[in-house]
């Protein structure tokens, strides 16, 4: 298994590898290359969703759907057994269940030898991320995380063709999302279904001792504290205590999340301290220093 090197001297340079594969222009639109492209984690991920395949609630008036597909290795052909597939989405009233023990519209299941997964749920609806900002409407979408030993964990989202706000949403309209805007079709029994096949990426893990050095709390300014936590082979980032991003190591001391952002670069100082530089968007960066590490 290949292992990407974390540079001890930050002045050195290593060519980084994209976290979401290549893109090709076919003359009309972008086409995504394998592996399946990543998307933002969003603020509403909750670990520990129950293992089940039916998310529908008896009193819901949402449109029933079936989301199904196969999980493949990086060759796009070999099915993966025992992959953990998690999904979460809002209800028909634009609400995420962020606190109840029921984990409404959140579920997980493990694939069998054929790599297949299938969830019964309802079609989520668009929602306004900021009630004071009309430009913050997000299109209907379903979040997905796929975790597999020896494969890079995948955090992504799926959208729906013809959906409102798809063309204006920063993430759904990104070129990397083109193969995740899906048709809603009818099955032989008349039920609405969505087919989403996933191709995983090869895992390039860092050693635990590197995570031990970079995880912890960082002061980014008077009002901003970042916390970095290892979660499987991902690095989670919290902003002022709220989970905001999942990050994948790409080389050059850098982790990236979502569709290229945030981009987080760690610098190991000679005095043993760690500095972090976070690029939130092109040309917009903040930096800070680690002030609390976790006892190992």
List the helices and strands and how they pair.
Elements: E1 23-25, E2 30-32, E3 64-72, E4 84-88, E5 106-110, E6 116-122, E7 127-128, E8 137-138, E9 142-147, E10 151-152, E11 154-160, E12 181-182, E13 185-186, E14 192-195, E15 198-199, E16 201-202, H1 208-214, E17 216-219, E18 225-231, E19 234-239, E20 242-251, E21 254-257, E22 263-268, E23 274-281, E24 284-292
Parallel strand pairs: 3-14, 3-15, 11-12
Antiparallel strand pairs: 1-2, 3-6, 4-5, 4-9, 7-8, 9-11, 10-16, 13-14, 17-18, 17-24, 18-19, 19-20, 20-21, 21-22, 22-23, 23-24
Overall 3D shape:
globular
Roughly how much helix do the residues carry, as a percent range? Answer: under 10%
Written as H for each helix and E for each strand, in order along the chain, the element string is EEEEEEEEEEEEEEEEHEEEEEEEE
Structural class: mainly beta
Give the CA-CA distance, first to last residue: 26 Å
Strand arrangement in the largest pleated sheet: 17-18-19-20-21-22-23-24
Helix segment count? 1
- Alpha carbon gyration radius: 20 Å
Total strands: the figure is: 24
Nearest-integer average pLDDT: 87
Uncertain runs are 9-25, 28-33
Largest sheet: 8 strands, antiparallel, barrel
β-sheet strand percentage = 35-45%
Can you walk me through this structure?
It is built from 1 helix and 24 strands. It has one helix at 208-214; strands at residues 23-25, 30-32, 64-72, 84-88, 106-110, 116-122, 127-128, 137-138, 142-147, 151-152, 154-160, 181-182, 185-186, 192-195, 198-199, 201-202, 216-219, 225-231, 234-239, 242-251, 254-257, 263-268, 274-281, 284-292. It starts with 22 loop residues before the first strand and ends with a strand. Residues 9-25 and 28-33 have low confidence and may be disordered.
């Amino acid at each position: 298994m290949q292992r990407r090197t974390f540079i001890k001297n930050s002045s050195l340079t290593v060519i980084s590898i994209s976290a979401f594969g290549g893109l090709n222009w076919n003359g009309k639109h972008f086409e995504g290359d394998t592996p399946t492209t990543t998307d933002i984690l969003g603020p509403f991920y909750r670990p520990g969703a129950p293992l089940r395949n039916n998310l529908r609630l008896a009193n819901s008036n949402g449109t029933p759907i079936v989301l199904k597909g196969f999980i493949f290795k990086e060759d796009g052909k070999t099915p993966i057994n025992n992959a953990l597939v998690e999904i979460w989405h809002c209800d028909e009233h634009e609400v995420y269940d962020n606190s109840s023990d029921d984990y409404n519209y959140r579920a997980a299941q493990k694939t069998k030898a054929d790599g297949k997964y299938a969830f019964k749920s309802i079609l989520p609806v668009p929602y306004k991320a900021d009630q004071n900002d009309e430009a913050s409407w997000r299109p209907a979408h379903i979040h997905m995380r796929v975790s597999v030993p020896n494969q890079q964990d995948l955090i992504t989202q799926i959208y729906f063709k013809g959906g409102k706000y798809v063309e204006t949403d920063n993430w759904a309209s990104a070129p990397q999302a083109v193969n995740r805007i899906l048709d809603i079709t009818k099955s032989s029994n008349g039920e609405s279904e969505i087919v989403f096949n996933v191709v995983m990426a090869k895992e390039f893990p860092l050693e635990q001792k590197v995570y031990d050095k970079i995880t912890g709390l960082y002061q980014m300014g008077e009002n901003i504290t970042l916390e970095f936590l290892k979660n499987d082979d991902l690095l989670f980032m919290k902003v002022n205590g709220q989970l905001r991003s999942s990050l994948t190591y790409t080389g050059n001391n850098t982790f990236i999340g979502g569709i290229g952002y945030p981009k987080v670069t760690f610098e190991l100082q000679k005095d043993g301290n760690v500095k972090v530089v976070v690029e939130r968007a092109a040309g917009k960066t903040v930096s800070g220093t680690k002030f609390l590490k976790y006892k190992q």
